[in-house]
Amino acid sequence: MDLLNDIKQDLFLGLPIVLLLRFAIISIVAIALRRYIAALVTKLFFVVFRKIAHQAQIQKFKELLQGPIQGVLLCILLFIALNQLHLYFEKIMLFERHKSFAHTNIADVLTSSFSLMELIDHLFFLGLIFYVILLLARIMMFLFYLWVERAVAAKDRERQQLLPLLRDVLVVMIWSIGFFTVLGVVFHVNVATLIAGLGFGGVAIAFAAKESLENLLASFMIMVDKPFTIGDHIKIGSVEGRAEQIGFRSTRIRTLDQTLVSLPNKNLIGTNLENFSERGRARVKLKLNAHYGLSESALKIVIQELKSIIENNENTVGDVVVFLENFGATIEISVGYFIPVPSIKTMEEIKQELNLEMYKIMYQYAQGFGFPAQVSINTEAKNEMDISE
Fold first, then answer.
1. SS3 annotation, 2-67
2. How far is residue 29's CA from residue 74's CA, in Å, rounded to a whole number?
3. What residues pair up with 93 in beta bridges, in sequence order?
4. How far is CA 386 from the centre of its chain?
5. pTM
6. Domain-embedded: residue 216
7. 102 shares a domain with 75
8. pLDDT confidence of residue 377
């Protein structure tokens, strides 16, 4: 008992050793065990969503929520640790303002001050609000992730198209609430007055956010007009591919070579848009080059075999066109066929399957592919002639 009292009375740098020990222990726990504590809290948190989510989705839940939960825990534990030394931090003044009275005997009066402890308080609330808002936004994203998965399973294209846009709008609203909360709690700004004052600057803000507003309105017009839906095969200008996601700013299109292209929504309204899915099939055209020197019968066999493999493929529909088109640097054979949209296989898979079959036929009946003739110049003979002259 006497030893415990001695420890409480012992000082280091003017502070009781017991407070320094508390600070050290809580800080070590916060930094070293935050991941494990966050993982445990995340598992307990998942129990709330067990009715609407299955066990296989817990990994996605962890990816979204474990980071924000770690941040919240770290903020709280470090604030508790630093509070153990609040008597020391309150004495450290970062800012002081004095008011002097001239021609009087009154000394300068301290009108305002800002201590290190107050700075710690402000940083704590800033970090806590940030991670709480991030946690709420991630929960919202997880809920929409579940709903989108159900829409995909039900093949409900309208919900697949609407849900991502609604998610983005709600996430922006959550972050806006967090922004005004930080202004009010941390920086002590009168939020009501600020919002009222925004009415005077609304025109300037509208001009500054003109492009964002245009894209947002365009996204709602796409939802209402429905020129295409998620999964449709579309072409906008030079970009052709499958629509993957419609956000409130841009639309993502997966092109035929698997590149992901993001186009501003306003461009989709102001540009001619072709929806190949509406006609039920997409056309594929290509040219094959054959060698000169092939007999007429060999060319006929090549054309017939190419047409046959395309017609007999279960993933093609409609008429198949294969004909001898032109005599240029090589013999040009034109090939055209249609792929149903949507189909069980992707367009890229079907095209690759048929291209491999056509490749095999060209080497079996046409001795491979033709290429423009190359002309070589004998530079040595030219140089000799120049010397003799």
1. HHHHHHHHCEECCEEHHHHHHHHHHHHHHHHCHHHHHHHHHHHHHHHHCCCCCHHHHHHHHHHHHH
2. 9
3. 115
4. 65
5. 0.64
6. yes
7. yes
8. 38
CA 241, CA 336: separation in Å to the nearest integer? 19
In a domain, 296, yes or no: yes
> Could you tell me if 289 and 371 are in contact, meaning their C-beta atoms sit under 8 angstroms apart?
yes
Residue labelled with tokens 């010397």: 387
What is the sign, positive or negative, of the torsion defined by CA atoms of 225, 230, 232, 234? positive
CB-count exposure of residue 350 (10 Å: 0-12, 13-18, 19+): buried
Element containing residue 317 per DSSP (H, E): strand 317-327
Across-strand partners of 336? 285, 321
Residue 93: its pLDDT value, please? 83
Q: Is the peptide bond before 342 cis (omega within 30 degrees of 0)?
A: yes
Q: What is the pLDDT of residue 381?
A: 38
Q: Apex CA 161: angle with CA 157 and CA 162, to 5°?
A: 120
Instruction: Tell me which amino acid residue 71 is.
Output: G
Domain holding 326: CATH number? 3.30.70.100
Going from the first residue of the chain to its last (389 residues), give the mean pLDDT of each consecutive group of 10, the final group possibly shorter: 48 69 87 87 83 78 90 92 86 75 58 82 93 94 90 83 85 90 86 68 56 76 81 84 83 85 84 77 87 88 93 89 89 90 75 92 87 45 39
Read off φ and ψ for residue 386, nearest 5 degrees: -65, -40
Residue type, 357: E
How big is the CA angle at 298 (ends 296 and 300), to the nearest 5 degrees? 70
pLDDT, position 2 = 44
